[in-house]
Design brief:
alpha/beta; 7-stranded mixed sheet; binds N,N-dimethyl-L-histidine; L-histidine N(alpha)-methyltransferase activity; SAM-dependent_MTases_sf; MeTrfase_dom
Amino acid sequence: MDMNTIPVDPAFRKDVLRCFEDGSHAIPARWLYDRAGSELFEQITELPEYYPTRTETALLKKYCSEVGALGGEGRAVIEFGSGSSTKTPHLLEAIHPAAYVPIDISGEFLAYSAAQLKPVFPDLPIYPLEADFMHPLRLPEEVLDQPKIGFFPGSTIGNMIARTSVDLLRSMRETLGVGSQLLIGFDRIKDKDLLIAAYDDSAGVTAQFSLNLLHRINGELEGDIPVDQFRHVATWNDRYARIEIYLEAQADVAFPIEERAFSLSKGDRLHVENSHKYGIRDARLMLRAGGWTPVQEWSDESDYFSLILAEA
Ligand code: AVI
């Protein structure tokens, strides 16, 4: 093998080929996050139209001390999908945890976030865990006997369909144990135009983020998809209460992927992401279905975003 070749994840190959072979024309959103995709997502979080990150960050700054007072003080913080851990310091400062366990599939992100947090919290033991948090996990030995609080910000749960979200909440309960707490972010249902603008920004960064998936297919799977023949489309599906992201062919296109020939007609769409939004009762119900009892919730003045503290 060429030393510069990135080994292809067989699950990526399977999902991409299935999308075209069975005509489902859907690719799971997890594949949006290669290195370029993760960098573009960081840019999205700073866009004027993308309200979730700044709204949730303001809630964390304002209310994390209440999490401490509601039993969070001194617990070990277990963060699911910690990424670059940008929101974590607000929680760590407020509840003085016994330890911090960032969980991420990317070892690179884990090393980065540990390096960022170490100088700010020199006395905090950090035990990074490189793993897929969608399944129950064995936590590091050092925190097994400590009271724990899970942290799942960003409304990342919104990128999953309801059944997967509930499965994940159950897995988290199994990983953390009865008596644990969970602090989780939910993006709320709001004006359709605001939602669409957040997922189709005027600078075109979100479009680049979704179109990057086609570049990834070309780079990793010997594809030759004409990326410039596709456009990013964000729609609001009211029945499912979610933003749906598609890549729409602007002309009839034919292209190979790993020497197999595929084609799409003008107007055909590839479904690449869902981002569900929640009424506050939907969020509470989802938590209960996953084995978590909501204890307290905090929202901004416009009810754009909510943080919920729950107990197992
Ligand atoms: C990571 N996740 C919560 C983002 C969202 O808002 O659904 C992903 C995203 N996709 C396009 N913009 C943001």
